[in-house]
Amino acid sequence: MAKKLVIVESPAKTRTLSRILGPTYIIKASLGHVRDLPKSVLGVEVDNDFAPKYVVPKEKKKVVKELIQAAGQSSAVYLATDPDREGEAISWHLVEAAGLDRVPLHRVVFNEITEKAVKEAFRHPRSINMNLVLAQQTRRILDRLVGYKVSPLLWKTVQRGLSAGRVQSAALKMVADREREVEGFTPVEYWSIDAELKKKRSKAPSFRAELVGPVGGPKLNIGNQREANGLVAGMKGADYSVAKVGQRPLTRNPAPPFITSTLQQEAWRKCGFSAEHTMSVAQQLYEGLAVGGKGEVGLITYMRTDSTRVADEALAETRDFIAREYGPTFLPAKPRSFTKKVKGAQDAHEAIRPSGVSRRPEEIKRYLSPHQFRLYELIWKRMVASQMASARFTVVTVEIEARTSATKYPLRASSSSLDFPGFTTLYQETRDDEEDRKESPIPKLEQGESLDLTGLFPEQHFTQPPPRYTEATLIKAMEEHGIGRPSTYAPTLSTIMKRGYVEKEGGRFMPQELGLVVADLMAEHFDWIVDLGFTALVESKLDQIAQGEREWVPLMNEFYIPFQKTLERATSRMEKIKLADEPAGEDCPNCGRPMIIKMGRFGKFVACTGFPECKTTKPIQTKIGVACPECGGDLLQKISKKKRTFYACSNFPKCSFAIGKKPLAQACPACGGLLTQYRKQEARCQKCEQQFNLEEIERKPAEVGT
Which residues pair with 199 in a beta bridge? Predict the structure, then answer.
């Protein structure tokens, strides 16, 4: 009896599905797309309703041939590619490239690779959804037209190897615009004054109250030290008393389970993972890993989603777990549901959650790599916490008056106390660029009660510019503006870094001169294309195509007619720009002339200024000021062929020391070994494996570990 053929994208999926489906199915991997637009030419017939000219790349011809042979020996074909537009398009391309419609053909979709979900999907197959395919195809053609027609202009006017893109250029504009805000920002001085106060004839600790404006009046503005000193002088002789004591309950609710963007943001904040790395690890967790003696199992649901919806069965399982492990006080009266706030969000998928809440992170830790464990733990905790009871606080606010014969100074103190931890027992979301004002506990006070002044503390401040974007905040901003979709955030950020448009400094995106030049050129000549509103509108129209509410060819005409006119104007007006050479700080070893840093198709490299007479080039090797722990040579920052940063000894090949984590200048306080940055605020010793807080090491390195 002929077997049934199942086609997926990756070999990891084949192993997991083979275990679930059994010997009557043959599982084959397509290794992604088997057809695409050609690389060397546009591949779009603009005058023929934008018909795409797909080709099977040379490296995929063998895969297609094997699939044709397997289909010919099968009784049916099941297309089990990912449950999104890209997966739908891959299935359609498989049919077209391999002629799979010559046998009974089925499309199966599952949100998690578990036995129950997979078997349910195979019991209810469907046909390929051509609306989803056309939405993906329209995006591909739009991006091809922008990329292949605008990028050559950048090559002519700036340098070869540059690229423009509909979403990429909008994201670059956001980074460049933020940099302009930072550069143009003028700090404004202001002062605050705290009074340290104490209950009379009491052993209760002192507390601080801040000088504020009158209740209901204008905000107090202390503009300079002279004004601050004048206020301090007046307050020294004042009588302090409690004018009003207020108390109110405060409830904090948990964050919803992850969607793609929030997972990428929180993985950056808590783990220091790039968006690209987060999605790579999440893909491994979704496709299946060997856990115990049960073979491969999918640990999480599909990781490209903008929906916070959770299946009823998963909600029930989570609530049972909470009641059993934490008790009924930690369980809300009914399941929580979360309203989507993402611009253009679809509800086709679930949120990102564990495929089984009963599979605790610590129980499977030994089967996972460190990064797999940390991401799974993050997803697991977020899901469980999202269905736990709210945290409850009591907030106390005290209004205080400082009176002299001539003046009244209003002050305010506030503090909060935790009454019930709720979800915070398990998980709390990290906030971006949030300054925590330290609160001192306030003793029990009564209205009219007199207080003793123990000190006055004026402090100078300056207004701060908007912070430069991190991976987390840029993804958050893209999501808020409707720029891109879950599948595009990570590759967009990766592209603007690989092109040399931006670099990370201290975890924040810094636009380079090249990036600013490209952003300015795009804003000047293609302003409507990089406009955030236009980019979001295109995403909305693509969604309408996916839902069968809009035809794709008219949309292409709406875009292309004005685009072609804009392109013609830009071709006449864009003038060649000469970027300043960036000195490499060294001379050519062959001819002695200065070396400069240049950008090539594989990133930055060092080249001789004597080109073409002298063609000496070398990879960039940056000294980081840390000695090799094995031979004492300089450790250099390098870039691997896979574009990953690593650190290696300058004495290679005599010394082969290399490490992926960033080495730190401080030695381990416990054993003197090499410290590397482990997380954003943690360091780990490569010798004794102890972990330390980075701030503590920088503040008093000699005391840590003693």
Answer: 451
Predicted TM-score (pTM) of the model is 0.84
> Does a cis peptide bond (omega within 30 degrees of 0) precede residue 511?
no
The Cα angle at residue 27 between residues 26 and 31, in degrees rounded to 5: 145
Name which of 273, 660, 177 is nearest 465 in CA terms: 177
> What would the mean pLDDT of 211-236 be, rounded to a whole number?
89
Instruction: Report the candidate in 163, 193, 349, 195 with the shortest Cα–Cα distance to residue 260.
Output: 349
Token pair of 309 as six digits: 């919806």
Picking from 345, 343, 344, 259, the residue whose alpha carbon sits closest to that of residue 308 is 259
Q: Which helix (H) or strand (E) holds 683?
A: strand 682-685
Residue owning tokens 């790579």: 280
DSSP 374-441: HHHHHHHHHHHHHTSPPEEEEEEEEEEEEE-SS-EEEEEEEEEEEEE-GGGGT-----SSPPPPPPPP
Q: Identify the CA nearest to 519 among candidates 286, 173, 71, 263.
A: 173
CA dihedral over 257, 263, 269, 272, signed as positive or negative:
positive
Of residues 684, 556, 446, the one with CA closest to residue 144 = 556
Rounded mean pLDDT of 514-536? 95
What span, in angstroms and rounded, lies between the C-alpha atoms of 173 and 167?
10
Question: Exactly one of 302, 501, 560, 647 is catalytic; which is it?
Answer: 302
pLDDT in the model for residue 435: 56
pLDDT band at 679 (very low <50, low <70, confident <90, very high): low
Instruction: Give CA–CA dist 222/38, Å, rounded.
Output: 64
In whole angstroms, give the CA distance from residue 668 to residue 221: 46
- Element spanning 12, H or E: helix 11-21
Closest CA to 269 of 123, 460, 463, 474: 474
Q: Which two tokens stand for residue 570?
A: 């830009």
**Structural contact between residues 538 and 497, judged by C-beta atoms closer than 8 angstroms:** no
Residue 460 CA: distances (Å) to CA of 212, 229, 230, 515: 15, 11, 14, 36
* 301-320 pLDDT tens trace: 999 999 999 999 999 999 99
Q: How far is CA 190 from CA 218, 226, 408, 433, 436, in A?
A: 15, 11, 21, 20, 19
How does pLDDT run across 460-511, given as a tens digit for each residue? 999 999 999 999 999 999 999 999 888 899 999 999 998 889 998 888 999 9
Q: What's residue 668's pLDDT?
A: 83
Query: If residue 248 lies in a helix (H) or strand (E), which one and from where to where?
Result: strand 239-252
Residues 6+ apart with CB under 8 A from 504: 497, 510
Does residue 402 contact residue 238 with C-beta atoms inside 8 Å?
Answer: yes
Say what percent of the chain tops pLDDT 90: 74
pLDDT at 231: 95
Concerning whether 367 is annotated as a catalytic residue, the answer is: no
Residues ≥6 apart with Cβ < 8 Å to 520: 176
pLDDT of residue 697: 56
**Distance in angstroms (rounded) separating the CA atoms of residues 279 and 281:** 5
Residues 6+ apart with CB under 8 A from 76: 4, 5, 103, 104, 105, 106
Rg (CA), the chain: 30
Of 521, 522, 516, whose CA–CA distance to 534 is shortest?
Answer: 522
Cβ partners under 8 Å of residue 427, min gap 6? 254, 381, 382, 384, 385
